[in-house]
Structure formats: structure tokens, C-alpha cells
Amino acid sequence: MDSSSIEGYRERIVAGPILSSMVRLGLPLMLTDIVFLIYNLTDAFWLSRFSPYALAVPRQNWPVFLTFFSILFGVSAAALAMLSQYVGAKMYDKVNESFSKFLTLFLLISSTLFLIYRFSKDFIFIYMVRVPSEILEDVLGYAEIISFDLIAIGLGIAINTLMQSLGDTKTPATIGAIGALINAVLDPLFILGYGLIPAMGARGAALATVLTRLLSAFIVLYFLYARYRYIRFKLTKHFDIEWLRTVFKVGLPVSIMTIADGFAFTFHLSLVNLFGAVVVTAFTIGFMVLDIANSIFRGFTMSISIMVGQNLGAGNKDRARKIALTASHILLLFIYCGAAIILSMRSYITSIFTSDYLVMQEADRFISIIAWVLPLLMLSFLGMSVGRGSGHTTFPTIVNIIRFWVIRIGLGYILAFVLNIGVLGLWIALAVAEAFGGTASYLWIRFGRWVKPIIKPKPIAETMPETLSRAITKLDNKNV
């Protein structure tokens, strides 16, 4: 291992000031989230110039993508928990060995998902999602090209998870930001056309995204090899039973949660679609506005996974819980301020994406209802981050399933269609779901039994830094 840099990252996380470590890790992750948002906003901006309802196309695809990525997210959760705890326990030989297995698994799964998605997209969007006829052709064209993104994101998740486990969140974020700039240049060229490049609309947005993500993934891979000379891995066919059992135990709840979330998003979207293209477009705009706020703070929740994982690996159980609680209180304070800003600027923000009065009116109502529960939504994300870092993912999974299926969909359907409140019932159910998820997650963070590592750390003498070991030996000799 490149001990000077990796040990430096580790020592700051397991022994340094909590807030400064949170900021150091969280800012790059926040940037990564903002980069992802920029991809979506850039697509939406130029698609809105292509046709009135084209900006709704990527949002139609996302819930389905989330469902397909469920297995990858589960494997990612297991990878982050195991790798970060190995780093915290200074079991660096296990990092290379374990990541070789994870990388192979990621590539096998993402390639399989690509083939399944590619050949089932028509059935999914026509019969399951029930995409409005006005945008169906664009959605199918977008899906045909964006299917390659399954492979690009699979590779990217694998590499970024390793970098984050080491405590390096800056490198992937920097390269991702460069990728976003490239995407911003390619989008108008591919969507609207220029010179010899034909106007491709939604297909062009998908093509720009896939090319940019593939490029970013390979650049991060290059920097990983160049910067960490002792990080070496390879594709392997050797998967031992104990390793697979740990991956299954940690990853299965996350995969179940992500599948449930994906189907819930898809089903919820189909309910929204019943109200027509105006409501669908307003829903898309409203979620983009909320994504702006989410992206500012969600990176900090992701950084908690790394800090919790390394501290549990190092045996710092009390510090791990203190980290999670500190993050909870900071998020609540700052996001309530952010929600107030969004509410005051909601009309101006929605006007950037549409001039249609009916769309603006519905988007305004949606944001007015959901903005005040944004802090609790962040606590739900934080609960999942604590689960990912500790490897204890069952409780956050249960909370998420109740949040989506029982409240967002079940209560939403009753309010909208049984009690005939209409689309307003769907918006109210969304707010209630986030209030429940955030409250339950906070109680689990404070009182839950998640402060137990999932790896078997070596005895302290085996992982002790060489200089410290020599110092103790010298002191013992003096005492003799």
C-alpha cells in the first residue's frame, strides 16, 4: 500500500476532529452529487428547448434504472462496509484481495443487467410504466442508448467505492466535475444538432451521458493505479464461501430495498402519469428543484459511511455513534435553512424550465408541500449511510419499504383515487412518507445496535504501525 497517503487519510478519520473530517470527505462527495445533478439539469435544459415535454424523458427512465441497479447497490454497500473496515483495522492485504472479487462481481452483474434491460425496454415502458403517448417514442429511443450506461456506472461505482473506502473522495469528484463540463458541451450538440451532427433529441442526451461516464470511469481507474502504487487488483474466479456470505448478508437488504424503491418509483410514476403530461412535467421540474437541495447535503451523509466503517474497523464504537449523531444535528439545521430558500425562490426556479402556466402552477404546489420535509428526507439518507458503513442494513431497508410502499403509494392511492383528492393526495403522501422515514432513522441512529463491525479484525499487535511497535518494545526493554 501507499502507506503515507492511506495512513494519513485513516488517522484523520479515526482520530482527527470529527467535523473537519466530515467536511473534508463530504465536500468532494457533495461535488459528485452536484455533478450527477448537472448531468440531469443539463439534459433537462436542452431537452426543454427541443420540445415542450421532452425534459420529462430522463425522469421516466430513472425508476426503471434504479430497479436494475438494485443488485449493484447491494454489492456496493457490502464493498464499502468491508473495505473501509479493513482500512480502519489496517488489514491492507485484505483490501486488494477483496476488491479484486468485488470488481469481477460488478462487471459480471452490470453486463448481465445491460442485456436484460436492452431486450425488455419496450415491455417495461409500454405496459408497466405506461408512458404517455406524447413522449413514448422519445423514452424508448432514450432507453436504447442509455442502456450502455449500466456498464459505465457499474465500473464507476466499483472504482469510486474503493477510493472512498481509502478516504480519498477528492479524486473521483474532480474527475466527475470535468466529465460534467464535457457533458455540458456535448448535450446541445447532440440534442439540437450542429453542422454535420444531426438533432437527436432525447437520444442525443443519452449518448452524451454514456460517453462522458465511460471516459470519467477510465480516467479514475488510471489515477487509482498511478497514485496508489501498492493497490493492485485483477479479475478473478475465486470467491470463497465466507466472503460471499458476508456480501450476501450486507448486500441483500440493500438490494431488496433498491428493488422495492425502484418498483415503488415506477408504480408511483405510473400513478402520476394517469394525470397527463402537464402533471408529469410539473412532477419532473419539482423533483429537479428538490434534487438541487438534496445534492448540496447528500454528500455529507455519504461521507458518514466511510467514517463509520473505518472507526468500527479500528474499534472506536462510541466515536462511530458520535459521528452519526453529529451529522444528524448539522443536517437538520442547515437543510431547514435550505428549504426556506427553495420556498422563497420556487416560482423563479420553475420558470427556468417552462413557460406553461399550468405546469408552473402544479410544480409550485408540489414544492410548497414537500420542501418542509427535506431535512427528514436527509435523515433517511443518513440512516442508510450509517447502515452501509457499519454493514447493518436491515433496519434502514425496512424503514424504506414502509416509507415507499405503505405510505407514498398506499396512502397516496387512497388519498388520490379513493378519497378523490386527486394529484394533491400523491403530494401529501410524499410528505408524510419522508416525515416517517426521517424520524425512524434518527431514532435508530441514536439507539440502534449497529455499532458492531462485520469483519474480524486482527489482534492489535498485528496491525500496529511499525514505529509504534518499535517504541513499545524499547519501553518494555527499559522496564526490564
Automatic annotation (TrEMBL):
Membrane-topology descriptor: Multi-pass membrane protein
Pfam families (UniProt xref): MatE (PF01554)
Keywords: Antiport, Cell membrane, Ion transport, Membrane, Transmembrane, Transmembrane helix, Transport
One GO term describing the cellular component: plasma membrane
A molecular function GO annotation: antiporter activity
Cellular localisation: Cell membrane
Major subcellular site: membrane
Transmembrane segments: 21-42, 62-87, 99-119, 139-163, 175-197, 203-225, 246-268, 274-297, 323-345, 365-386, 398-418, 424-445
GO terms (BP aspect): monoatomic ion transport
InterPro entries according to UniProt: MATE_fam, MATE_MdtK, MdtK-like
Keyword Plastid: no
Name of the featured protein: Multidrug-efflux transporter
Origin species: Ignisphaera aggregans
Lineage, broadest ranks: Archaea, Thermoproteota, Thermoprotei, Desulfurococcales, Desulfurococcaceae
